[in-house]
Amino acid sequence: MSDKPRVAFFDFSSCEGCQLQVINLEEALLDVLALVDIVEFREAMKESSEEYDIAIIEGSITRPMDVERIKKIRERASILIAMGACAYLGGIQRMGNKWTPEENKEEVYARHPGSETTKGDDNPFFEQPRHRAVDEIVKVDAVIPGCPIDSDEFAKVLVALLTGKKLPIPDYPVCVECKKNENICQFEIGGFCMGPVARAGCGAPCPTHGGECEACRGYVDHPHSQAHDEVLKKYGLTAEQIMNRKTMYTYRYIEEARGE
Ligand code: SF4
Ligand code: SF4
Ligand code: SF4
């Protein structure tokens, strides 16, 4: 029997795009497989196992049954990795925390006929008022940010964990990478960008291709949020608009600041 660490992937509330990014490793996946045995990976194999050393989690924790499941996974794993913005931050779906379950239900089902296939008064989604990141429920040993994650960064994080090296996740803002790409700043052309507080490592693809950064990799460890707010204000956003601007991937930080 192999003595390589056993890796299992688990998905919660997510689009499974981060797991696809792992499959997209292609040849580099062989390098990863030289270091570990993958024993469960629903997107890529039929087998499953209750015995593993490293659990890689995709998705946010949403339903009561998810809480129980993630706790059991944590008990079995020596190392637990939160993979992607859903697991790391609570995902885009965390915006739903702004409203009550009843309001969300009304918005999704009453105002959008045609979505009845998943309707049900016993749908446990609506019993849970909050979407949460994995580390709000159990201890997380490492995160791989992004929506989706970057395949190469996934491989680097895994190798760093297995070899006891420092995790290769940058702690400087996306603006640094954006400026290296010699982009015109979004603020100069009418945009409202999250780049000054967002964690780099992605290479700033969104502003490079004409969009605004949405901070899908979360914030740097010590973001200059006040200075960023001042910039948003200077370029014309009201306090409410500033708050709304920060909810796509980063509503977690607003909830944390409010102590929710
Ligand atoms: S982080 Fe993005 S790509 Fe990954 S599972 Fe969540 S929504 Fe999908
Ligand atoms: S476009 Fe965004 S990421 Fe680029 S420099 Fe401006 S604020 Fe920073
Ligand atoms: S530029 Fe911003 S939104 Fe785009 S991938 Fe990077 S962190 Fe995510």
Kindly describe this structure.
It is a single chain. It contains eleven helices and five strands, in the order βααββαβααβαααααα. The chain has helices at residues 17-23, 27-35, 64-76, 84-89, 101-110, 151-163, 174-180, 205-208, 225-234, 239-245, 251-258, and strands at residues 6-11, 37-40, 54-58, 79-83, 142-144. It has two domains: 6-91 and 131-163, NADH:ubiquinone oxidoreductase-like, 20kDa subunit (Rossmann fold, 3-Layer(aba) Sandwich), CATH 3.40.50.700; 174-258, no CATH class. The protein is 36% helix and 9% strand. It has a five-stranded parallel beta sheet with strand order 2-1-3-4-5, with helices on both faces. The longest helix is centred in the N-terminal third of the chain and has 13 residues, at 64-76. With 260 residues, it is α/β, with parallel strands linked by helices. Helix 2 packs parallel to helix 6. The model has no long low-confidence stretch (mean pLDDT 90). 35% of the residues are buried. Helix 3 links the parallel strand 3 (54-58) and strand 4 (79-83). It is globular. It binds iron/sulfur cluster (3 copies). One iron/sulfur cluster is lined by residues 174, 198, 202, 204-206, 213-217.
